[in-house]
Amino acid sequence: MALVKIAVTTNGSGAGSTTSQPIRGTLMGLKVAFGGTPDAGTDTVISEAAGLGRTILTLTDNITNAQYNPMQAGNGPTGTALTFYSQYYLMFTPITVTVAGGVASTADAVVVTLNIKED
Fold first, then answer.
1. pLDDT at 82
2. 89 backbone dihedrals φ, ψ, rounded to 5°
3. What sign has the CA pseudo-torsion 118, 69, 7, 99?
4. Which of 17, 29, 63, 83 is the most exposed place for a label (fewest CB within 10 A)?
5. Pairing verdict, β 110-117 and 2-8
6. Counting Cβ atoms within 10 Å, is residue 19 exposed (0-12), middle (13-18) or buried (19+)?
7. Looking at beta carbons, which pairs linking 51-55 to residues 24 or more positions away fall under 8 Å?
8. For residue 59, how far is the Cα from the chain centroid?
9. C-alpha distances out from residue 22 to 32, 51, 116, Å
10. CB within 8 A of 6, min separation 6: which ones?
């Protein structure tokens, strides 16, 4: 297992984003931690910066430090939604953490730690 830390520093408007180096492996879970005195209206989006461009997790008006186990919905061969979920597999994919409405001008305003099972 490898831990990949992505820290976002916000600007004067409380917005910012940081993109990791490419990651390869299975996303087993992640932790989101808020620094400083976060604003209750903070929105955080964790997504792929390349490849399929999937959104992995969206937190709206949320400043609770927590751990998550995001999963993706399965689809059948005709595109029909199936009733199973699987972990995200990342194939040399950088991950971007984007923050809006956060506390202004703060280093490490949001820190996301990804738990990756390497191949």
1. 83
2. -100, 125
3. positive
4. 83
5. antiparallel
6. middle
7. 51/90, 51/91, 51/92, 51/93, 52/93, 54/88
8. 9
9. 19, 10, 12
10. 18, 19, 20, 95, 97, 111, 112, 113, 114
The token duo for 67 is 């751990």
Cα separation, 68 vs 71, in Å, equals 9
- Amino acid identity for residue 45 in this structure: V
For residue 111 the two structure tokens come to 């820190």
Q: Which amino acid is at 112?
A: V
Q: What are phi and psi of 80, to 5 degrees?
A: -70, 135
Tokens standing for residue 76 = 């059948």
Tens of pLDDT, residues 19-54: 999 999 999 999 999 998 888 999 999 999 999 999
Which amino acid is residue 89, in one-letter code?
Y
> Coil, strand, or helix at residue 4?
strand
Lookup: tokens for 33: 């931690």
Structure-token match 């087993």, residue found: 28
